[in-house]
TrEMBL record, chain A:
<dbReference type="InterPro" id="IPR004183">
    <property type="entry name" value="Xdiol_dOase_suB"/>
</dbReference>
<keyword id="KW-0223">Dioxygenase</keyword>
<dbReference type="GO" id="GO:0016702">
    <property type="term" value="F:oxidoreductase activity, acting on single donors with incorporation of molecular oxygen, incorporation of two atoms of oxygen"/>
</dbReference>
<feature type="compositionally biased region" description="Polar residues">
    <location>
        <begin position="288"/>
        <end position="301"/>
    </location>
</feature>
<protein>
    <submittedName>
        <fullName>Protocatechuate 3,4-dioxygenase</fullName>
    </submittedName>
</protein>
<dbReference type="Pfam" id="PF02900">
    <property type="entry name" value="LigB"/>
</dbReference>
<feature type="region of interest" description="Disordered">
    <location>
        <begin position="282"/>
        <end position="301"/>
    </location>
</feature>
<dbReference type="GO" id="GO:0008198">
    <property type="term" value="F:ferrous iron binding"/>
</dbReference>
<feature type="domain" description="Extradiol ring-cleavage dioxygenase class III enzyme subunit B">
    <location>
        <begin position="8"/>
        <end position="271"/>
    </location>
</feature>
TrEMBL record, chain B:
<dbReference type="InterPro" id="IPR014159">
    <property type="entry name" value="PCA_LigA"/>
</dbReference>
<feature type="domain" description="Extradiol ring-cleavage dioxygenase LigAB LigA subunit">
    <location>
        <begin position="31"/>
        <end position="117"/>
    </location>
</feature>
<dbReference type="GO" id="GO:0018579">
    <property type="term" value="F:protocatechuate 4,5-dioxygenase activity"/>
</dbReference>
<dbReference type="Pfam" id="PF07746">
    <property type="entry name" value="LigA"/>
</dbReference>
<dbReference type="InterPro" id="IPR011986">
    <property type="entry name" value="Xdiol_dOase_LigA"/>
</dbReference>
<dbReference type="InterPro" id="IPR036622">
    <property type="entry name" value="LigA_sf"/>
</dbReference>
<keyword id="KW-0560">Oxidoreductase</keyword>
<keyword id="KW-0223">Dioxygenase</keyword>
<protein>
    <submittedName>
        <fullName>Protocatechuate 4,5-dioxygenase subunit alpha</fullName>
        <ecNumber>1.13.11.8</ecNumber>
    </submittedName>
</protein>
Length: 301, 133
């Protein structure tokens, strides 16, 4: 059976992609940011996950204002990098895992998460920068990726509690997939940053580290943080951190940290990165009728 | 949160911040869709060749058009622009996020960069207008 082996949290700051693509990783400004990923690159080479469920937000690349899905899952075969206004990043196309993605999509819908299904889209820095951080320069990505896009642009975004519960539902879906696959769940975006208005440039190191602390262990306090607290404490774009809670929810009851990295600033943003391992990966049973029904389950198996 | 009205009202209590609510999304719909069009190289070329003519192809207000021409990003936020969409405009101008974002703060790029290098803007005093904290 497929199993969730680790969770990774990581900011997806566009300038890191720029520095990476232009050979600036060793420059004084960028070195401290990149050094924090060296541990993880070694770890990924040893660990070799088969699939990443990569939670991110699209930054007006694949989705414009015409259609705004709250939760959307990529069920396609591959996803080219997007041109975000200055040409596409020179990174390989991202390969999907359509079998597992469709299985997760169906399971989530029966679990009463009404997902939008995407068969074709381009993926922007929100998805490709974390891949570059974790895998470095590669000709092809050595892993399949299931993009899971969350609306954190147009209000209201989903609540932290809903994100956590979605993570638990993803864990249930993965555990009922018949193939033996090592699956990681990544939560990206954040940490504190504000890119707009006179308050731009806000950074809250203390709050960010509280957030990192509580992703580790068995606390579920983070589920209850309201949107207004993210906005006030971490800046208007700090709301992206709700996506980390999908990753955390998928890891089950308790976690331990294998690696932690925090650096200020990268561009306008506080960089946070955490590698988590489930200690007790159990999640609550599905509360829904269909997801608990054997006949319905045979349809998605 | 007691209801949607209170949820939304709280957003106006954050200093120097425009939360991208449904009201702003409606007001800025065509402005943001214009910005989105700059994802394509041929559109960027046409826009930079004659900005005014390109903007006239979009059903945006005269105020929105003027604010684009002036690259007045705070004004564009007030008129319903969203920063991730507006990023297409400043990216096509060759500006980084730091360069563009600093223009909204009343600081020079160098001063803004220095503030970021020193750890960024503290949340102290800019959490709430009402509470002054």
């Amino acid at each position: 059976m497929a199993r969730i082996t680790h969770g990774i949290a990581c900011s997806h700051i566009p300038v890191l992609g720029y520095a990476f693509d232009h050979g600036k990783e060793g420059e004084d400004y960028f070195r401290p940011a990149f050094e924090g990923f060296e541990w993880t690159r070694k770890f990924m080479k040893e660990e070799k996950p088969d699939v990443i469920v990569l939670v991110y937000n699209d930054h007006a690349s694949a989705f414009d204002m015409k259609i705004i899905p709250t939760f959307a899952i990529g069920c396609g075969e591959s996803y080219p990098p997007a041109d975000e206004g200055f040409g596409a990043r020179p990174v390989p196309p991202v390969e999907g895992h359509a079998d597992l993605a469709w299985h997760i999509a169906q399971s989530l819908i029966l679990d009463e998460f009404d997902m939008t299904i995407i068969n074709e889209m381009k993926v922007d820095h929100g998805l490709t920068v974390p891949l570059s951080m974790m895998y470095g320069h590669v000709d092809t990505w050595p892993v399949k990726v299931i993009p899971l896009a969350v609306n954190v642009v147009t209000y209201p975004p989903p609540s932290g509690n809903r994100c956590w519960a979605l993570g638990e539902a993803i864990a249930r879906a993965v555990s009922s997939f018949g193939e033996d696959l090592k699956v990681q769940v990544w939560g990206t975006g954040g940490m504190s940053h504000q890119l707009q208005g006179p308050r731009a440039g806000l950074i809250n190191t203390e709050w960010d580290n509280m957030f990192l602390d509580r992703l580790i262990g068995d606390s579920q306090d983070l589920r209850q943080i309201p949107h207004i607290e993210y906005l006030r404490e971490t800046g208007s774009e700090g709301i992206e951190m709700v996506m980390w809670l999908i990753m955390r929810g998928a890891l089950g009851r308790s976690t331990r940290a294998l690696h932690r990295h925090y650096h200020v600033p990268v561009s306008n943003t506080a960089l946070g990165h955490l590698v988590l391992e489930p200690v007790d990966g159990s999640v609550p049973p599905s509360p829904t009728l269909e997801q608990s029904n054997a006949a319905a389950q045979t349809l998605v198996a | 949160m007691s209801d949607i009205h209170q949820y939304l009202a709280e957003f106006d209590d954050i200093p120097g911040t425009r939360v991208y609510t449904a009201a702003r999304a409606r007001q800025g719909y065509h402005l943001n869709q214009f910005a989105m069009s700059l994802m394509k190289e041929q559109n960027r070329k046409r826009f930079h060749a004659d900005e005014s003519a390109y903007l006239d192809e979009w059903p945006i207000t005269p105020e929105q058009k003027q604010a684009v021409l002036e690259r007045d990003y705070n004004r564009l936020l007030d008129l319903g622009g969203n920063i991730y969409f507006l990023a297409k405009v400043f990216s096509s101008d060759g500006l980084s996020f730091v360069q563009a974002v600093s223009t909204m703060t009343g600081m020079s790029v160098d001063d803004y960069q220095a503030m970021m290098n020193a750890g960024g803007r503290s949340p102290e005093g800019v959490r709430s207008i009402r509470d002054g904290n």
